[in-house]
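During the reporting period the student researcher (J.K.) took over the structure-prediction task from the postdoctoral fellow and processed the backlog of single-chain submissions. One of the processed entries is reproduced below for the supervisory committee.
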Amino acid sequence: MGKRLNKRNRRRRSSSRSFRSGNAGPILKLLGVVFGALAGLALLVFGVMFVLEAFFKVDTPLDASGIIGKFAGKINTPLIETPSPVPTVEPTPTPHPMEGFDPAAAQRELILPGELNYPWLADPSSYGSTVILSAGRLADGKVKLERLVSYDIATGSASELEVKPENDHLLHPVFNDKWLVYFDANYDFGGGAIRCIDRTASSASPRTIKTVYVGQPELRLENDILTWIERTGSEREKIFVCDLSSGETAVTAYFDNQASGTSMPFIHGNKLVWASPASMSDSAVKTMDIGTGSVSEFRPGVFVHDPEYNGEYYAWLDSTHGENAKLYLSDGVSGSIEIAEGVVEFGIDEDFIAYSKGLAVYMYVFDTGETYCLTANREAAQLLGVSGGVIFFMDVTSRERDIIKYMVSPFAGELRSVNEG
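J.K. obtained the following structure tokens:
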């Protein structure tokens, strides 16, 4: 078997030598040389066109959509230099309104012209750039505030309103663009009448809202809603709310021989706020939505007197304006903080609380938690109130006449047309 395999291998090698040594061998070699030369030439041509396209930007027959054309196009793409990084310019921070605020320079005295010779002034209330206040003279040893005077902060002009008392004198005016409301008071025996005037009507005749038999209630006004607290019996006080557009009056709360009965209600943002007893030693702050009638409350754990509200914060005193009264602030959710002690009067605004302590007026700013003195060291002053971004106080350094001063808060910008009494 091995001999047969050896014979087959010898026959194959012999056949292969015969083919190479035959006539076809030289032809195949010639064809290989020709094809090799053509391939080399093609590579040379493509190489030259590639260099012309890519580096010399010369158009050639290369197909731009082909692989070589695309590659050449990428090389031919102009170089885009990366710009040097420039640091971002930081914007100039907006200064805080209290930076550079000079309270002494911001003070203005409310001066009436000579023809309005009223040395006794009281109860200023503002709406926009207009202030309305009570004015009067000394008669028979008694100060009677028998006139209402309108004063324009922007121009310093003043005029006497055509409103005369049917009783003795006019107190606690509050107003907005539609209504003017005031208390027409009896001088000797107290009581009187709450009256209003529709400022949009052709007739300015006053309309009686309610006759009051005891006390002289302070008034709070927002839009068409008026509120006050009034003693209606020997030991009962009631909180009234009146819709001036309809004349309808309702009682929202009452107190029988309770300290909360001496605490005034407040209105802001269509919400009525008042203090209600919670236990023997503390109070609840109640808030009623006037539109829906829904009532909510929170208990700060202290006695609450004269609570005020600006839509975000509540403020109140922990006693009835005593020398040791403390002023508190709360958002109604996360507890309360003490602002100052010895506060006799305060008023809340959108951005701050103004308050009297000793014979000076101060401002506590919500967003910084800082307190600023608004009156000079040698100036004796008592806060009268805060209304529409304007702070009013009485200069009591001299008591020969009433000197009302005011300052527009640095937060007010344009005077806000908001009146809260």
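The committee noted the following: Residues 1-21, 417-421 have pLDDT under 50 and may be disordered.
J.K. will present the remaining backlog at the next meeting.
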